[in-house]
Hints:
Radius of gyration: 18 Å
Pfam families: Asparaginase_2
Site (Cleavage): 157-158
GO cellular component, one term: cytoplasm
InterPro entries: Ntn_hydrolases_N (IPR029055), Peptidase_T2 (IPR000246), Taspase1 (IPR037464)
GO molecular function: threonine-type endopeptidase activity
Number of domains: 1
CATH architecture: 4-Layer Sandwich
Number of helices: 8
Strand content: 25-35%
Largest sheet: 8 strands, mixed
Strand order of the largest sheet: 4-3-2-6-5-1-11-12
Helix content: 25-40%
Amino acid sequence: MCAFVAVHAGAGTHPHKTEDVCLKAVCKSKGNIVEAVKELENDFRTNCGLGSNLTFDGHLECEAAFTSSEGHVFGAVGVVSRLRNPIEVAAMLAKEQLCGDKKFVQPTVLVGRGAENWAEKRGIVLCDPISLISKRSQRQWREARGIVRNWEKETMDTVGAVSYENGGCNAACSSGGIILKTEGRLGHTIQVGGAIWADQRDSKSVAIALSGCGEYIAQTLLAKTLAETLLNWNCEEDVILDKIKHVFNAAFLHSPYLKTRNKRHILAGGLVLFVDRESECAELVSFHNTTELTFAFFGNGNGMKYRSRSISNDFIAHSFSLRDYISLC
């Protein structure tokens, strides 16, 4: 039986049917979260890998991260331009922490040429950065450069994924960053506990993958904060949607760390996977305060796609029971 896997195409506005892209990714992945994200990276309609947003000067700089409850490992790459699938290298970094030489502290995050050289030494074929720049990205870059005052209307669409199998869980994300970003800028992807988190305690497993304003998600460690709350949550007493909304408001939207920031930029969304084998509770929650969030999930031979829309950027969340998608035995 394949693992359960869910992916989202980012929080923002999606002119393309990216929910179809997400469904294709989870169906082809055979339960492998890295393969699911690679499918998104290879599609020009998503802001990661091929089709990533361009910097102010028209260059491409990608980032990706992977984390697993197994060994609590984390790996990330940033400011890379010659990796066709950054998520593959992020996962390699994470997994090498379990099998690498214990005499040395293994790197967790690598950026720029150092990340690319590390990957090449391990058999990854580097590509020409030009080959990753899509016509869509070039068109949006020209439009944004021409009307810089409207840059904030572009999507902040880091893609993300969560997976579960036999109690263990993973989370991953990949991004080209915001359009017209300053070169060298790092988003929430490379921040441990910012964009993604995966943990397992006793009978409970939680995996989270977020998208939105990277600087603010990273500053509030939103993924880790959500996960810690749910790991201490009694699913028989409260509704998971209420719990997530409370954390979102208290720890992010009204966070004291973001008190002086422009409220229009305090945006986030993503997927939360929660499984409690003891109470036989398994749920996938989508949430966002952006215009849209598209996603899909697959497990036990069943797949589903969804496009969530919010009016006036109000907080909106949906919960999906996974009893037919996950084996709790």
